[in-house]
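Model: Ready when you are.
Researcher: Fold this.
Model:
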Amino acid sequence: MGFLLPVTLLVLLAVAYPGGRSARRGWAARAQSPRGSSPAPSAPSATTAAAFWMRISPKFLAVPPGSSVWLNCSSSCPLLEGSALHTGLRRGQKLSGPSWVSFQLLDVRAWSSEVRCSLTCAGVTRWAAARIDAYKRPHRVVLEPPALKGSEFVLRCHVTHVFPVGSLVVTLRRGGRVIYSESLERFTGLDLANVTLTYEFQARPQDLWKPVTCHARLRLDGLVVGSSSAPVRLTFLAWSPASRAVASASIAAFVGILLVLGAVYLRKYLQMQSLA
């Protein structure tokens, strides 16, 4: 693989990614609108309370970091006595009707959170849980063309607008082989980030024209999402003078061997023709 030199890693915070608010707010507002006048619900009986069901919707959400979301807890109970939401996320508005409650959660930034909702009907309490993931697939992965720094190649990979950066792994591959991989688990920021990975190495003549790619992957407890760069190639013109000299000597030696073999074959062929 060659002699490895220090790797430079630059992480810059990006602007928080908006989205996911208006549609869910509208849904929650519609949920509270009456569909016409109806008699006031009566208190549930013990039998109704014992058999009542509840559910939380949606049970799973994946949103950009910084989004606000609505969760609706509904039931078959005609008149709820109480409700509660258990979460470490920041809460917003609360809307309710006789048999349902909707909660707003603000500025979701933890990449995975469990939210538990409880409803009480005639002294009976039931629970339901939902999961909210906040992550952003890398917007772009760009690998710059190789540059020379002294006698080493410099590869620079840019990963833009990714979250959570602490779950990001950046990998460089040459001809299908991993030449370097870096985990960013030490970064614990709660914002979108731009990441630049710089890697230096000494290339060998046999690396000529092999494709090099950069891969950015988010590893989220079994869920893996990511993006890859377009390939760049290590070209002869980008090599250092010493590497070019070695490559030229190798090519010249190979051509010389071909010429010698050709001359030997031609001589034998002419001898056989003269004896015929």
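Researcher: Now this one.
Model:
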Amino acid sequence: MDGTDSKVNLGSIPLVALNVTVRKKLGFYLNPKHTVAADWTAVAETMGFSYLEIKNYETSRNPTKTVLDDWAARNSEASVGKLVSILEEVERKDIVEDLQPLIDEDVRKYLETQKKKAEPPVQVPEVDSCVPRTPERSGITVDDVPGSITEMFDAFICYCQSDFEFVLEMIKELEQTEYNLKLCVFDRNVLPGSCVWTITSELIERRCKRMVVVISDEYLDSDACDFQTKFALSLCPGARSKRLIPVVYKSMTKPFPSILRFLTVCDYTRRCTQAWFWVRLAKALALP
């Protein structure tokens, strides 16, 4: 590829850098069954998925998206560069050429976000009395002390607005009890006026030990939740550090997200285990 690839090693760029638009267009190209051109099954096979796994993916409404999500979740080497190589290997250079501008733009935005996270804010000469800053951003949550103390949390709560009532119950059960945990709830803890994506990445990666993902039908339609989940998974491929904890609190009509199906779920909908729900969740969050 030209453009971004001439300056950046795409093999070092995780799949989370590709936004919803690119993923949808990949589906448009690969989901239809072709008699000549390679489709999603050829891509999945090249990625290392078994025959049975590929047959199971045939029931998915968007098999390309499911394959990409599962590949990123279980393969630490999954990257934008590797995906491009696979497309070229199955002789779908037409897709690479058509999507190149969009991929380049997504990679550029991803690198800009990473650069902003890594660099401390620029000190203006006139303000020479400021306390030296650490690479972590400060002044983004309510209890931050700008320039010195950054607020830390036991867990980042990934949720959509329609599930906020359950988040409030979570605060009551986990913070205002003997568990005494500290949760990062975006609407409560984050100060207004910041770049949503940059601040979210900072909180998930550096400020929170774990992330609770509140799964619901509405969650599946949320771009913000999609970004947060995939970003957290990119930090711990295969969930080796037990970083993500999926929670289901109400019945769903849509399929459970395939990208999280390899994780143990904390299920509030099962009456027979409701009595243990908060205990299990609290102990999981309290682990070192």
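Researcher: Key takeaway?
Model: The beta strands are 153-158, 183-184, 208-215, 244-248, 266-267.
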